[in-house]
Amino acid sequence: VDRLTFDVQVTNAQAATIFMEDVHAGMVSSRKFLLPKYFYDADGSELFEKITELPEYYPSRVETKLLASIVDDLVARIQPKEIVELGSGSSSKTQLLLNASQSSLKRYIPLDVSSSIVNSTAKRLLSKYPQLSIHAIIGDFEQHLAMIPPSIGRRTVLFLGSTLGNLNETSRLNLLQEIRKIVVPGDCVLLGVDLVKEVRILEEAYNDSQGVTAAFNRNILAVINKNLQADFQLEMFRHNAFYNEERSRIEMHLISQGNQTVRIKGLNLDVLFRPEESIWTESSYKFTRDAVENMLAHADLPLVQWYTDSEAQFGIAVASPE
Ligand code: SAH
Ligand code: AVI
């Protein structure tokens, strides 16, 4: 269909090289780590969708409800002509905006590392919104914002799900500064952020009773097994997620169950694990309104509106350059 453009920012060979370098760096580090963007192969994206349906994982549910309650007000203010979405995944919350903006909206630009989910989502949206053009970009939001096509007017940049919280402070600021470069006065940025709250609620959201989050966490090892011919035994790594109050973040780790050596053939590397040694796989920072307002201001994106649910679990910031 000519309403669909599908841009892939890196060749398979480039992606393979970067993946090798990143896994190597993480596995030879004295504190082992892996980058959370590698959770999201087709299986990982499916597991994340299951997470969003868990009773314990309040962020998706609360953000959806909040967005539904403000969407008419929002769209009346911003009347978007195009929506650029970072880490768009299944675009399920986005559809609230797509529905409400039908009269003004011409183009939707989802950008995500996970080609499988963007592909199936784009096809679904094309048939559901016959007036809409879709320009999908498979890429890394920390590297490829410059590849987003020139604006056709009144652009809204959407960044939902508190995915910004998966970056550390420096990377968050960098990304917001890159976002600033793709908007002009009159455009806006909609940022969904998970808020600091009672530790029990936070920790339960990352330790669900069905073990879906544990499977999501371990999937990163399956991704390495598949792409680098490694022999991680997934059941030999325990899921561990806890709130680090001092740093306002959930940390997810995989903990080695005993002494073990993992062979990563594709890197020609043997990795030794001590009992209880951790691989740090994800941080998920939690915010306050002030913290969000400050970081946006630092990126020259003044906060113009702040929405939160009645229990102040989740926030949606609207920022606009001057
Ligand atoms: N926005 C959706 C999905 C959130 S899950 C929601 O709110 O429910 C995080 C999404 O970001 C996944 O689809 C994942 O593939 C994508 N993602 C993670 N790191 C990324 C990166 N560095 N660049 C682009 N996309 C990324
Ligand atoms: C995508 N991201 C904001 C999710 C989060 O909550 O940090 C990923 C996730 N990790 C474990 N559960 C969900």
Please tell me about this protein's structure.
The radius of gyration is 20 Å and the shape is globular. The chain has 322 residues and is an alpha/beta fold. 36% of the residues lie in helices and 25% in strands. The protein has helices at residues 12-28, 42-52, 58-78, 94-100, 115-128, 169-181, 199-205, 212-228, 289-298, and strands at 4-8, 82-86, 107-112, 133-138, 155-159, 188-194, 237-244, 249-256, 260-264, 269-273, 278-285, 303-308, 314-319. α2 (42-52) runs antiparallel to α8. α4 links the parallel β2 (82-86) and β3. It has an eight-stranded mixed beta sheet with strand order 1-4-3-2-5-6-13-12, with helices on both faces. The site of S-adenosyl-L-homocysteine (SAH) has 19 residues, from α2.
Order of strands, main sheet, comes to 1-4-3-2-5-6-13-12
Beta-strand residue percentage: 15-25%
Low-confidence stretches: none
User: Which ligands does the model contain, each kind named once?
Assistant: S-adenosyl-L-homocysteine, N,N-dimethyl-L-histidine
> In one word, what is the shape?
globular
Number of strands: 13
Determine the fraction of residues in helical runs and give it as a percent range.
25-40%
Main pleated-sheet profile: 8 strands, mixed
Q: Could you tell me the mean pLDDT?
A: 97
Give me the strand/helix succession.
EHHHEHEHEEHEHHEEEEEHEE
Number of helices: 9
> Rg to the nearest angstrom?
20 Å
Terminal Cα span: 38 Å
Helix-strand category: alpha/beta
Quick summary:
The protein has 322 residues and is of the alpha/beta class.
